Amino acid sequence: MPDTGGKVPYIFVVAGEPSGDALGGALIGALRERTGGRLRVAGIGGEQMAAQGVQSLVPLSDLAVAGVAEVLPRAPLILRRVRETVAAIQVDLPDAVVTIDSSGFSWRIAQRLRGRGETLPLIHYVAPMVWAWRPGRARRMARWYDHLLALLPFEPPYFEAVGLKATYVGHPVLESGADRGDADRFRGQYGLTRDELLIAVLPGSRGGEVRRLMPIFGETLRLLQQRVGPFRVVMPTVAHVADAVAAGARGWPGNAIIVRGNEAKYDAFAASRAALAASGTVALELALAGLPMAVAYRLNPLTEALLNHVVKVRQVNLINLLLDRALVPEHLRDRCAPGPLAASLAALIEDEDVRSAHCRGYDTAMRRLRGAGTSPSRAAADRILAIIAARSDTNSALRETHDE
Hints:
The protein is an alpha/beta fold. The chain is built from 17 helices and twelve strands.
């Protein structure tokens, strides 16, 4: 662990959505471990950061939106939250600010802090996908941030080329426990027999994506039931969309079981035969669990039209990107429809060759993601503490020079 000179580090962590909250919770846990518990932390987050002692400055539900058309109606609220966050940081003056993903929110905080002359270390965790679209974002980040913590091994060169120091720390999904679920525990808890078909359905963690995907997923399951017969459904979710998920699943085939928390989610993965999921980080969890998946996503039509002109990659799913081939069925835009989704799920459930191909591909992707050495969250914590220690050493040297 880097030497912080006996001072208790104070770190302000900002996560703008549930996936960032999960990263933030693991990061804070690693920071506490590395500092022997001598740590002050504040910021913005959800359930998992709250479990690490962070009382969120603002509700996460105010920030967890995606897409141009989706953000515009919420812009006044989001900008107010930016101002409140910047003001809190300027009052508290932490040793470092760590923003996690959510560039629309995080970067505005960094930009305003730099615009007001703040020189405290600004660190961003999770690289934007400049290799997929809008490469100019790397240069913009370099104006505000001191360091980037990247989750994927091919990302740092894109940012180092424009002068932003970057470290590949590995993806925290590898330490999530997604591969250690207990199928028997889940089936016993919910009265499912060993042979009863179970399908995991994950419609996302943002309100907008849940509203758009739930009707499509419900109709998909109705078509699927006609092809494969009866099944049960489990829906892992998070607090701020749990009510919407439960309400939307009423009347679906499969008498949906709604669960919250990572242990229940990973037990559900272990007990399931296949998954239907909103495209995102959950694909890595499903791959680590070895659960064959199809992914889907719909945005507001205006946002989708804009993305059609700027996205540079053929695949968006992280497993497909790591493999550089189309293994996981991606149902985006017009293909995000019940017919194609039901067909993909039926193949994942019934065709053993398809299932085996998925499992082999997932193993390869996880090997490529898994870096040597320490866990991703510890690697990220060590880099943050090293940045704080280096800043402390620099400030001490400057003070000594001034005193002389």
